[in-house]
Amino acid sequence: MLKIAIVGCGKIADSHAEQIRRIDSGRLVAVCDREPLMARQLADRFGIEGAFSDLNEMLDSVSPDVVHITTPPQTHLSIAKLCLDSGAHVYVEKPFTLNVDEARTLLATAERCGRCVTVGHDDQFSHAARRLRKSIESGMIGGNPLHLESIYCYDMASTSYAKALLGDKNHWVRSLPGGLLQNVISHGIARLAEWLPGAPTICATGRVSPALRALGETQIVDELRVVMTGDEGTTAFFTFSSQIRPSLHSFRVYGSQGSLELDEDQQTLIYRSGTRFKSHAERFIPPVQLAHQYHKNLFHNLWLFARRDFQFKSGMKHLMESFYDSILNDTAPPIPEGEIIRGTQIMDDIFHQLSAAQ
Amino acid sequence: MNFTIPSETSPMISSGVSLLGERVLVTGSSGFVGVRVIEALARHGFANIRCLVRHSTDTKALEAVIAANSHRAAIEICRANLLSPADCVRAARSAGIIVHLAAARGEKSYPDAYLNTVVTTRNLLEACIAAGGVKRFVCISSFTVYTNGDGGAVLDENSATEVQPHLRGEAYCYAKTKQEVYIREACEKAGLPWVILRPGHVYGKGNEGISSRVGIGTFGMFLHLGGANRIPLSFVDNCADAIALASYHENSPGRIYNIVDGDLPKSRQFLRSYKRSAKAFPSVYLPKPISYLLCLLWEKYASWSHGQLPPVFNRRMWRANWKSVCYSNERLVSELGWKQPVSTPEAMSRFFSSCRESSSK
């Protein structure tokens, strides 16, 4: 069984601790935060033996097999290097690093140390996302995707994180090269990075929404639209918005024979066939087929719920499990390195364009 | 955490020197209770008051209070972030009394609640200890720390508090329990006199919600769960008055005080009056055996399903909120001589009036 440790005991660390508890191949043995009280509260609530405020001390005394890095992204590279050098594999929360150069350095360090790395793009491992991957790989849409659309929204009015960010001009998120976007859009971009081949060209526009401006905010870009073109002519649209409702987290993949539509919040996957019915039949039969698909999604979700595998962070559990299995069985990691680099590069390009436009 | 909780001291141990001449620092001073506390402190005779607010806080209400009390006291606003030790040092400079109201109320995440309640308290306490001139640290805690599980007919300051607060499924309870433990230990160690005040449900203009001890509207319909229970209400002006009194009274150091009003209404009386005088809405009464059973089932299912449903309803939570018990402010009255400024019928009448105003907007 793998010995697991967490560095950074903030909000997301709770989700990590909860999901690690559900996995048979790993045991959470230590937590670390430079604020000793934060380390102690996590250890206290989850009954973890080790609580540290010094990372080196934790690595020396516990020798964890895997370290989950859940600190702000500015620290990911330096912490990951320390962990990799100590012989631990690392699971890095999103966003992976501050930029693509750091991402390359981190992956090169892992290569040199012979250790594995993954990034916390757990939405890609939710039940519906795994079904989507399987469907595309089975040829359901007619080969490789031709066009992709990823929408990732964030409701600034309903989270304490947004309140903290808007209220604190020195919040760490503001010092990221991409600001709020860098901390939030990773999940939406990662979906595109998985299916968009090569090094896509980017055209991005962003702005501070009128709603945020009315609150006196002038720096946080909360409306972003991006058009991308991949090496083989595959295209993609990316939308980030804090204003549109419903606050969607969806992904559409279009192929030559059909398309798939994933709703991450509802955990539904809908297939739209490229075949058209004649005359008025096109107006009656597809709605019935869609209703049937929604029913199937409902029963599938109920089945998952009955099996006790429908937690809100079940994607995280599946990503962790796959990562641990790849370590134990010496197989390919769940997220290929090229995909991590591509996602980081896309984000870098977006932020460069936004900053140039400003 | 293996803290040893220092026991309360007996009352009447203070030097007896009046503290009204000291500068008092109030954290959370722009909040619902905070602005009333500033007003009460000025009314009780404090001449120097420093109001700590966050950098981003809207201070209109606070500024109005400052203007209205400018003939009584010099009141200044200090913008600071309690997560910054340097800000805490600046805020605590030349302060003689700390009234610590700021806390992460309503926060659902345990780390966030803890960070904004316990870590901030640690920063403030360390700044006070380093400053050296602080004579009293008054912390505003909450009734949430009580288990109400020890079988007593009256819940008072000697009643049991949560030993494993993380099992309540309520981040605020966890943070507040840990905050109290931290304050008592750190103050005892530094020889800094402490006072802990535990208000019940503070109500009044600005907080028009119905206490969860009466019932909850989580499932689309208001479920009345309190039944014949007394509700531990504290009208905001009464609560502020008690806080002001305890912050300088010679008997309060080393003591814990519950802040509840007298003549408390029963849950169903309160709900009936609310519907009649403020806003009518449908509700369903859930008898206690049924609500207990549902909480038990929810707790078991949350555990069995590895958190597929969050463990927010459980037996500890049921006992703390809906188990029948009486509340006492006897200690506050007998040791500090507190007299409730606004009678409960008058307080409820003002409350319903503000509810009507609020719903008509």
Task: Characterize the structure shown.
- The complex is a heterodimer of chains A (358) and B (361).
- In chain A, the strands form two sheets. Chain A has a seven-stranded mixed sheet.
- Chain A is globular.
- Chain A is 44% helix and 20% strand.
- Chain A has 358 residues and is an alpha/beta fold.
- The longest helix of chain A has 26 residues, at 281-306.
- In chain A, a hairpin with a 3-residue loop joins strand 11 and strand 12 (258-263).
- Chain B is α/β, with parallel strands linked by helices.
- Chain B has a domain at 16-208 and 232-263 and 325-350: Rossmann fold (3-Layer(aba) Sandwich), CATH 3.40.50.
- Chain B has helices at residues 34-44, 60-68, 85-92, 110-131, 171-190, 236-248, 267-277, 288-304, 315-322, 330-336, 344-360; strands at residues 23-27, 48-53, 74-79, 97-100, 136-140, 154-155, 194-199, 201-203, 215-216, 222-224, 233-235, 255-259, 283-285, 326-327.
- Chain B has a seven-stranded parallel sheet with strand order 3-2-1-4-5-7-12, sandwiched between helices.
- In chain B, helix 1 (34-44) links the parallel strand 1 (23-27) and strand 2.
- In chain B, helix 1 (34-44) runs parallel beside helix 2 and helix 8 (288-304) runs antiparallel to helix 9.
- Chain B starts with 22 loop residues before the first strand and ends with a helix.
- Residues 11-17 of chain B have low confidence and may be disordered.
- The interface between A and B is medium-sized, with 26 and 25 residues.
- Mass-distribution shape of chain B: globular
Biggest sheet features of chain A: 7 strands, mixed
Shape of chain A: globular
The rounded Rg of chain B comes to 20 Å
Query: What strand line-up does the widest sheet of chain A have?
Result: 8-9-10-7-11-12-13
Order of helices and strands of chain B: EHEHEHEHEEHEEEEEHEHEHHEHH
Order of helices and strands of chain A: EHEHEHEHEHEHEHHHEHEEEEEHHH
Helical region count of chain A?
A: 13
Neighbour order of strands in the largest sheet of chain B: 3-2-1-4-5-7-12
Q: Span between N and C termini of chain A?
A: 51 Å
DSSP strand count of chain B? 14
CATH class of the domain at 16-208 and 232-263 and 325-350 in chain B: Alpha Beta
